[in-house]
Structures are given as C-alpha cells and as structure tokens.
Amino acid sequence: MSSEGTSVPDLLRRFAPAPHVCNLFVDDAYVRLETNDPSIVTAMRSAAANSSNENGKAPYFWKLIRDDEAPCSEREITILSSGALNTLLLGAGTTIVIDRQQREVLGFIAPDVSARELVTLLLPLITKLSREPHPAIESAISR
Amino acid sequence: MGVTMKLLDINAAALSYRHTLELAGARCELRTNCSQLGATLDRWSVADGSREHKFHMQVLVTGDEDGAPGAARFRGMHHVVIAAFSRANVFVFDLLRRNIAAAVSESIARNPQFWDECLLPIAVGVLGATVGVVPVHCACLSIGDEGLLAAGVSGAGKSTLTAALAQSGFDYVSDDWTYFSVKCGRLVARGMAARMKLLPDAVSHFPILSQHSVRTSMNGELAYEVPAESFGSRVRRFCEPRWGIFLQRAADLSGSEFTRASQRQARQYLESSVERLPSQLGDTARDRAEILDRIAALPWWRFRYSGSPQFAAGELRSFVARQKQEVAV
Q: Count of alpha carbons within 13 Å of B16, Cβ hemisphere only?
C-alpha cells in the first residue's frame, strides 16, 4: 500500500512536482531530466545535446528541485563518497545524490546557485561522479 | 566564484572501530574511525551475537568544527534522505540498501545528547519499515508485559498523563514516540528515550520537578527532561500493546468518559503520524501498512477527561483493571 495522496505533509519535499522535462545526452550518457525550474532545462539544453535515446541505452534519471527554502551560504563543495552513493554538497543548501547503481541523480538546488552555475560548476562533477569511483574524482578536482 | 572542495571517503573497510547497536529492536552495525564515538554510544551497544544486522551506519569523524549543530534540514527523494545539521555534520540515509553514511565533527562524536535524543531516533524513524520498525506518535506504558498506548493531539496532556501513570504504578516505555515491530508473530512496542520531557508548567502537577532544571531540548523547546525513575516508575524497553486510548481534555465534562473508537479512526490517526513514502519504496510501504493494521486492530478508546493528570491516571488505572478482568472472565 502506498500512502501517496494522503494529507500528510511532505516534510522532505519528496513529492515536489517536477513538470519541466527534457531528454539529453550528457557526456555520452542518455539522461531524462525532470525539474521544477525551467531555467535549469534551458541551461542544461545549452550545455548538452538533445536526445531521444535512439541507441536504447539504459537512461540516467535526474531530478533536480529548485529549493527556495534552502539556506544560502558559503561555497565550499563537499563530496561524501560511500559505496554506490556519492553525495555532493555545495554549502549547506545544495545537496545532490548520485546513485551509480540505480542510475539516478537526485538533487535540491539552493536559490543562490544559478542554473548557469549548476551547469558550469556542478555538472562536470555530477557526470564524473556518475561514472567513476571517487579517486578519479579527486584527480579531476585537482586538475 | 572562489570554491573550495573536499572529498570525504566513507569507506567501511577503512573505518576500523566496529560496534553493534540495538535501536528499537533493530540491530545496527556501526563502523567509525573514532574510538570516542563507541563510548558515546555505549548505552546502545550490545554483544555482537548471531542476529543479523538490520542496517549499517558508517560515521567518519572529521577534524571540522562549525559550532553546535542546529536543527536538521531534511530533504528526501526516492530512496535517499539527507539530514544536514550543519556543513560539518551530514547524514545520508539510503533506504534501499539500509545504510547510513555520515560525516560528523569531533564535538558531535563526543555528544551523547545529540545521538540519544536526536540522531538515533531520527535514524530509526527515517529507515522505519525498511528495518521492520514503525514509529508512531504516542506514549506507551505497561502493567507487566501488557502495554497501554496513549495518543492525542498536541496539548491533550500526553506527557503529564504519562508522568502521572508512571507515578501510579505503570512501567514507562515511551512518552512521545513509540516504535512498533512484529516479533515471533506478536506486536511489540518499544521506547528509545530514557528521559521524560515535560513542559515548564508541569511543575504545578509534579512538585518533584522543582528539584530539576528546565533546559533547552534538542528541538529548541524549554522543558524538564528527567529520568522516568524520578516518578517512581520502572523503565521497560518493550511490551506487548493491548489497548489504545485517544486523549482529549474536556473542560465541559465533570470527571471522565470512555467511548469506543473504531478501527478506521485508529488507522486514520496512525496514518497521520507516518511519513508519505514514494513508489520506489513500495515493499516498505506494504510492510508498514501491515504493522499499522495490527496497531489499529487493538481495542481503541476515546478518553475524555477534566481535572488533574493524577485524576486521569487513576481513571485509566481502573479502566485497565476492568479490561484485564473482562479478559480473565
């Protein structure tokens, strides 16, 4: 039994609607992106090729929610690497979880991170964390 | 934009300290790089034994310090929940793999109040039915092995009634959240908090509280937090729930009254105290529903009362005695 649809408040914002959808090729991976922020779709389209997944590869599912209640704070990036999960934190407000086994990228983006910053600063990290265990990331970061 | 970057590798094999914790009946394997954390969590430690670990927790203690942790900021999607207390204290819950990965500061590793009153109840609450446990917002007291559940909206008098019942011979299991599971086919209720929390005005009913100080609890509320034993009660870790009551203060009433509540009403209340689950956790939702059905199937009563918590406790004590007598007959 699922309790979706009850009047219980969604404190975790698990059910935040993400009506803006696009399909993209990001670094050779087919991605279905769902978001509540149309500017993220626009920025991602400018950084990646549109795709209809003609080659039939298993898609990556990305859901990025613009989180207006998230705190805006310092710009330190922290990556927590544990098993199949990599968690990318930008300050205290932006959190993105990359699950390599489930092929999912699930994130909440703070208001002070623009769609352009998401693409220029975080997208390269997300794509690397989607593919590789953390030591490769470390070298990617230091380059 | 100047951005600094830090990589924290929370690799179980590299976390050399290993402990087994028992949390609301669920065994957890803790791995950490910090010997102090084991001492902080000593209250929850059990011998390793042969029982399986229901979940795993890897805690990397870093050298970062950023002050006392504030209230957690929770976010979740699909099978993942993140609790960020501050930049240096972050917990990632993976409900599919029943795993918690965390980075915490040294001061948090040395803070039993944080773990006992905040993080560990949250961990069991978030993982919930994935580890066979369903948390419900109600108090639980027992006579012998038989438990009485007390539910009610905020202000209904749940905490003061719990204290009064503890004074009147009931054993204390929990005063706010009760954790349910099924063991050997039987419903079991457990508590995690050893201290009872009472708001400052409770001192008018319980003069013993004047021997304690009001302090700021983990949720920011000013309250007395006192061991249940202060009320002359024994603390029981678990019991088998037999009855449930919905508390309701009734200023228009002289005395008290009990009316039977339906299973549907009980189920509605229980649903209101659990988190919605996404479709990715369909099996967990089904497991949780089975436990909620069993709780709702208990005999539930609506208990309206006026007067002091001690008066209400006396009425409930008589009520439980009558119920036990009816079963015996």
A: 3
Q: pLDDT tens digit string along A91-102?
A: 889 999 999 999
For the whole model, what pTM was predicted?
0.90
Per residue, what are the HEC states of A24-68? EEECCEEEEEEECCHHHHHHHHHHCEECCCCCCCCCEEEEEEECC
Rounded to the nearest 5°, which phi and psi values hold at B224?
-80, 135
Report the residue of chain B nearest A75, measured CA to CA: B3
Cβ of A11 and B1 within 8 Å? no
- A82/B97 touch (CB, cutoff 8 Å), yes or no: no
Residues B135-194+231-328: name the CATH superfamily.
Answer: P-loop containing nucleotide triphosphate hydrolases (3.40.50.300)
For helices B158-167 and B309-328, the axis angle rounded to 10 degrees is 70
Note the ipTM here.
0.88
CB–CB contact A8 B1 (8 Å): no
Domain positions in chain B are 12-131, 135-194+231-328
